[in-house]
């Protein structure tokens, strides 16, 4: 009988973090219905344990002999931040601007980094390096790839000020 890696990882995750799996399964059950997805995400997501899958699931599964690692020769990026996304979207060229989203007009002159947009407005970037612009209908974030990990402090401040509707 063939057991997929996903099944082994999910089973191991249930052993290591049962409450996390319960929450993810509840989210999955609500996901296909737009009427239930948003409320489920708002209710469940904030309470889920934030933990990397490699440390929490894959390594314990490997120690238990349930998962094997096969060496490979390829580039790797954890895609854990805006700098990683920018690098991947621009083909690894640091002098380019990665643009994610449809509808916006992005004008760039000697700019690099990433623009993530959900609006249709014109965004002009001139002479800025390693910039991160996240443009949504109700909020605008501008930072650099170097400081992008500090976004959590902005999220925390918005929550404290009662402005969670923009998160």
TrEMBL record:
Record lineage: Bacteria, Bacillati, Actinomycetota, Actinomycetes, Micrococcales
Cited Gene3D superfamilies: Spore Coat Polysaccharide Biosynthesis Protein SpsA, Chain A (3.90.550.10)
Transmembrane spans: none
Pfam family, one: ManC_GMP_beta-helix
Domain of life: Bacteria
Organism of this sequence: Pseudolysinimonas kribbensis
MannoseP isomerase/GMP-like beta-helix domain sequence ranges: 112-158
Name this polypeptide is given: MannoseP isomerase/GMP-like beta-helix domain-containing protein
């Amino acid at each position: 009988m063939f057991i997929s890696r996903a099944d082994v990882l999910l089973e191991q995750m249930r052993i290591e973090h049962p409450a996390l799996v319960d929450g993810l399964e509840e989210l999955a059950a609500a996901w296909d219905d737009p009427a239930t997805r948003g409320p489920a995400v708002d209710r469940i997501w904030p309470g889920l344990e934030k933990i990397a899958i490699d440390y929490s699931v894959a390594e314990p599964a490997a120690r238990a002999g349930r998962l094997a690692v096969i060496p490979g020769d390829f580039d790797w990026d954890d895609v854990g931040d805006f700098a990683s996304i920018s690098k991947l979207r621009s083909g690894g060229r640091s002098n380019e601007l990665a643009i994610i989203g449809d509808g916006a007009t992005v004008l760039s002159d000697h700019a690099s980094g990433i623009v993530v947009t959900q609006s249709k407005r014109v965004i002009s970037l001139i002479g800025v390096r390693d910039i991160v612009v996240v443009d949504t209908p109700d909020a605008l974030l501008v930072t650099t790839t170097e400081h992008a990990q500090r976004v959590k402090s902005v999220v925390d401040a918005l929550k404290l000020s009662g402005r969670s509707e923009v998160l």
